[in-house]
Amino acid sequence: MEHFYYLVAQLPAFKAVDESNAKLPITTEYFKDLCQRFMSEKDAATAAALSLEPPLEAHPTGSKFLDAWYAKERSLRFALAQLRALKMKKEAKDIPNTTDGEVVQVARTATGMDSPLSAEQFLNEYRIGLLDRLTPLDAFSVDAVYSYGLHLMLAERMKKFNRDEGLASYHKIYDEILGENK
Using CA atoms, how far apart are residues 76 and 61, in angstroms rounded to an integer? Predict the structure, then answer.
């Protein structure tokens, strides 16, 4: 039996794009546990399968919101892959073409940035904005719950980024490539 009002009432508000190091009020694991308790078996299974990485092939999820989100995210990833291949002068014939002008422009902007961290932050802000545009107005709908889960996953992902650790990792990989650190 579904109890969206009880579920949504237990989901704390948070800011997905937050520069502070404040801890998120809920984890994805706990979110999915709540979904198991308050959603139908089918909807809870869909919530448990939520991912920031869409399948390569489009498969209907039973949710127009999720289908639209995964289609946009898939297009973005394909556009990023095409542009990265082009930058490296590699063939991108196995990567499907992206015809969504907005997505292509976002990918171009991100790949043109000097800092990988800045590019990730830019892409995260785009994704948050996209989720906000796609999320239904009814806060007690199943799609609003899915949107909350995706927002939470994006926020958790961005909390993992650290400028100093990223720079250290970059230098380590760079040195290994050049063979300076054997």
Answer: 19
